[in-house]
Specification:
The protein has one domain. It contains four helices and five strands. A hairpin with a 5-residue loop joins strand 1 and strand 2.
């Protein structure tokens, strides 16, 4: 009986529709044009800029990200960054770099 009452309340709560993707995890993609350009989105969400980035290659799913990355995904729908040449870290990007955009 407890199971029956919990299932309808989850479906009936319209606010839960905006959060399941974030609680379900995240997908990481790499640009086909620039392999140092990566983006995280909520699980099963199509990443933005797919034409400007030359397409995205799925890399992996993860269940946990840092709080800043999770917040950015909740705000903007994605967290995009450029991996440093020496692979020691990266820089967050708000938009695609102009050299990729000019290739369209």
């Amino acid at each position: 009986m407890a199971e029956d009452s919990s299932e309808p309340s989850e479906e009936a709560d319209g606010s839960q529709e905006s959060q399941p993707a974030l609680s379900a995890g995240f997908d990481r993609y790499r640009s086909l044009t620039d392999p140092n350009l990566m983006i995280f989105v909520a699980k099963d969400i199509v990443p933005p800029f797919r034409f400007k980035a030359g397409g995205w290659e799925f890399l992996q799913s993860s269940t946990e990200l840092g709080s800043a990355m999770t917040t950015r995904i909740a705000e903007k729908g994605f967290f995009m960054f450029r991996v440093n040449e020496d692979q020691t870290g990266g820089i967050e990007l708000i938009d695609l770099p102009s050299r990729l955009q000019s290739g369209d």
